[in-house]
Design brief:
This protein has about 170 residues and is mainly alpha-helical. It is about 70% helix and about 0% strand. It has one domain. Helix 2 packs parallel to helix 4, helix 2 packs across helix 6 and helix 6 crosses helix 7. The protein is elongated. The mean pLDDT is about 85.
Length: about 170
């Protein structure tokens, strides 16, 4: 059974896919701007997914970490390093980005955990640059589609794995 966190992310995946297709046909002057805004929004949904999932699980824990709410409330820019750290602090998972936790990624997607971590970190770097007014050239709809695919795949794998450790009553 999927968590509410994954349900929100999957619903938004459809919207993001539609927006990427709109960007493909946008005039050149607007295309990159639309794609950068998509990356910023996608990063926000990736962040919200983890925050929502952590809150759901912490609410079911008999003895959650005393600082869990503080860590969740202050979480931002969900890079692979930050995810590794907070999944360990909040849920006790040593490295959520490893093959065992992210659901045998190589067999399911053809990409390794290292490749997924790089894709997520590249997306977070682009989000950071865009949010802080640094406009580097070179984003296209396929980049956004790759980010969207990675976020959706990793969120589903994370949700399924966390559900095995912290089942709903």
């Amino acid at each position: 059974m999927n968590s509410p966190a994954i349900e929100k992310l999957v619903t938004n995946k459809i919207l993001f896919g539609d927006l990427i297709e709109l960007a493909r046909t946008a005039p050149e002057g607007r295309k990159e701007l639309m794609l950068r805004m998509l990356v910023v929004s996608l990063a926000a949904f990736w962040e919200a997914f983890h925050e929502d999932l952590w809150r759901e699980v912490v609410a079911r824990m008999a003895n959650p970490p005393s600082e869990a709410a503080h860590w969740i409330d202050n979480f931002n820019t969900p890079s692979s390093t930050k995810l590794q750290r907070l999944y360990e602090l909040i849920l006790g998972i040593p490295d959520i980005t490893e093959e065992a936790w992210w659901g045998n990624l190589t067999a399911k997607s053809g990409q390794t955990p290292v490749e997924f971590r790089k894709l997520i970190d590249d997306m977070m770097d682009l989000r950071h640059d865009t949010a802080h007014g640094v406009w580097k050239l070179g984003i296209d709809p396929d980049d956004c589609q790759n980010y969207l695919g990675a976020v959706a795949h990793l969120a589903i794998q994370t949700d399924e794995y966390v559900a095995t450790l912290f089942p709903k009553p």
